[in-house]
Amino acid sequence: MGISKNIQKLIRSLETKKGRRKEGLFVAEGPKVVGDLMAVTAPVRLIATAEWFASHAIQPGNDDTVVTEEELRKVSFLQHPQQVMGLFAMEPATSENHSFLNDVATSEDRSPVSEAANRVPRTSYLVPRDNLHLALDGVQDPGNLGTIIRIADWFGIEHIFCSPDTADVYNPKVVQATMGSIARVHIHYLPLPDLFASLPEGTPVYGTFLDGENLYEQTLSPGGIIVMGNEGNGISPEVAQHINRRLLIPNYPPGRETADSLNVAIATAITCAEFRRRS
């Protein structure tokens, strides 16, 4: 069948945030990522080899395209395409579709992917205190964001709050780095100080700092929010003032000269692992 020029143009436009917002679509590639997304939401269009359609017992629809490996390579964002590309819908934010819903504890029927598109700020938020959440303050590298989403999925963290300057979750590099976890983790964009200011008094808000207290020697609660900062600047002063429990991932052995800091995704994995080990 081949890929028409219009479809090629559409796919290329989705490489940019502006294009994704205009079309309301994002790209996922590879059997793992596409398959996990299809488990929670139907694709708008599938572009795949005949072998992929046959192996999944899927009859191509009117909007789908059967391609050769070479044709897929021409439009893929990957260096090594993997049989299938899916275009999925971004649900636009509305006044009823807030960045964090008051019924979040019973929102299993809502698509995690559509929740990720929500960017409508609120003045109050209901965050389940018995659950562990992540907050990202200006994490800008798409690979880091995608990896953090995958880490959250592994450790059973279902919600991540992102500052508006955090990388776009629908960036193809983010989607790919999640390895399908984007289908199970809810991403919410909002001003983090607003979120923290609305929390009930005493809610644990953890943050990692170079002058914090040793992670392995502190009392860690089963619920709360863990804040991870920007790759170069760490947690911003505006957000830091809301953190009531400052943590440090110590280097080893103490006093030895080492790298200045850890990669934010690695630091997230270490921190989440210690919280879950204690629970």
What would your notes on this structure say?
The chain has 11 helices and 10 strands. By secondary structure, the chain is α/β, with parallel strands linked by helices. It folds into 2 domains: 85 residues, 60s Ribosomal Protein L30, Chain: A (2-Layer Sandwich); 157 residues, SPOUT methyltransferase, trefoil knot domain (Alpha/beta knot), CATH 3.40.1280.10. Strand 5, helix 7 and strand 6 form a beta-alpha-beta unit. Helix 7 runs parallel beside helix 8 and helix 7 runs parallel beside helix 11. The chain is elongated. The termini are far apart.
CATH class of the largest domain: Alpha Beta
CATH superfamily of the largest domain: SPOUT methyltransferase, trefoil knot domain
Physical arrangement of strands within the biggest beta sheet? 7-6-5-9-8-10
Overall body shape: elongated
Write the layout of secondary structure elements.
Elements: H1 5-13, H2 17-23, E1 25-29, H3 31-38, E2 45-49, H4 50-55, E3 65-67, H5 69-75, E4 84-89, H6 112-115, E5 132-137, H7 142-154, E6 159-162, H8 172-178, E7 186-189, H9 192-197, E8 205-214, E9 224-229, H10 237-240, E10 245-248, H11 264-278
Parallel strand pairs: 2-3, 5-6, 5-9, 6-7, 8-9, 8-10
Antiparallel strand pairs: 1-4, 2-4
Helix pairs in contact: 7-8, 7-11
